[in-house]
Design brief:
Length: about 290
């Protein structure tokens, strides 16, 4: 029996409705799952490309419905089109994005954002926070928990315990305190603690080379310290093919690797490949659950 995969349209003023509809009609998707598109109520209208709190609230409500259905088994996975974080703010919502909203809705205690592609797999230790706040947020406990969650979750993709590399925060991974102390004070102790639990993890490695080493097969996954450190190499190598997966949830959730693209919304030119990839991976994970 094919799993039912909820496809949420994301911000209805962006390209989400278009890529969701295209993905739901794609033969590759129909072969492996039963797609169910979740959107705003019939009769709702949103001007393409126009930022609004109304669109943000509509996107939020669609996610809530899809997650509720996933929690009770009506659907077996959720694949989400992009939301607009500013629209969420205009709607008076406190969530910075899908990840923290999903954690709240499912009661998950610890979640992490992973970007999965054939060429590179990256997990983020911190997500949507200002760069200036990263050093304070990057605690030993957070790094440790991210490594542990990665070790527990990634075997669903790699089939074997993953070889995990951890990127340093500072240039040259701090070079023993010369360019920063977070590596010695925070990251290295977290790695050492995880190794005592039998996790195959090493680092911290200079961020300017660790991703290259991963693409050459030395590591299965890289834990990045902050959002752009991890997302730049993923999008450079696999933009449009990478899939965002939320680790730590009691449900399967995948998403696209791009934003709402207001500039092309409503023009029927959006490429659905990332949405299709997200649905295909969601269906695969649902079958394994």
């Amino acid at each position: 029996m094919k799993p039912r995969v909820a496809i949420t349209v994301g911000d209805p003023a962006g390209i989400g409705p278009e890529v969701a509809a295209k993905a739901a009609a794609d033969p590759r998707v129909l072969e492996v799952c039963e797609p169910v598109v979740y959107g705003p109520p019939n009769g709702s209208t949103f001007a393409p490309g126009v930022l609004s709190g109304e669109a943000g609230r509509a996107a939020h409500d669609v996610i809530v419905r899809a997650v509720s259905d996933a929690m009770d088994g009506t659907v077996q996975a959720v694949a989400t089109a992009p939301i607009n974080k500013e629209a969420f703010r205009l709607a008076g919502l406190k969530w910075s994005g899908h990840t923290d909203l999903l954690a709240h809705l499912t009661g998950a205690k610890r979640v992490a954002m992973m970007f999965y592609s054939e060429r590179l797999v990256v997990v983020l230790a911190t997500v949507h926070i200002p760069l200036a706040e990263v050093p304070e947020a990057l605690t030993k406990e957070r790094v440790q928990a991210t490594i542990a969650l990665t070790a527990d979750s990634v075997p669903r993709f790699t089939k074997v315990p993953p070889r995990i590399a951890v990127a340093g925060l500072n240039p040259h991974a701090g070079e023993h305190g010369l360019f920063g102390t977070e590596e010695d004070r925070v990251i290295a102790p977290a790695i050492a603690e995880c190794r005592t639990r039998g996790i195959d993890v090493s680092g911290p490695y200079p961020a300017d080379t660790v991703f290259v080493r991963a693409t050459r097969g030395e590591f299965d996954v890289v834990v990045a310290c902050y959002h752009d450190q991890g997302l730049i190499p993923v999008k450079l190598l696999a933009f449009g093919q990478a899939v965002n997966v939320t680790l730590g949830l009691p449900i399967v959730r995948t998403s696209v690797d791009h934003g709402t693209a207001f500039d092309i919304a409503g023009k029927d030119v959006a490429d659905p490949e990332s949405m299709i990839a997200a649905v295909l991976l969601a269906a695969r994970l649902a079958r394994q659950s």
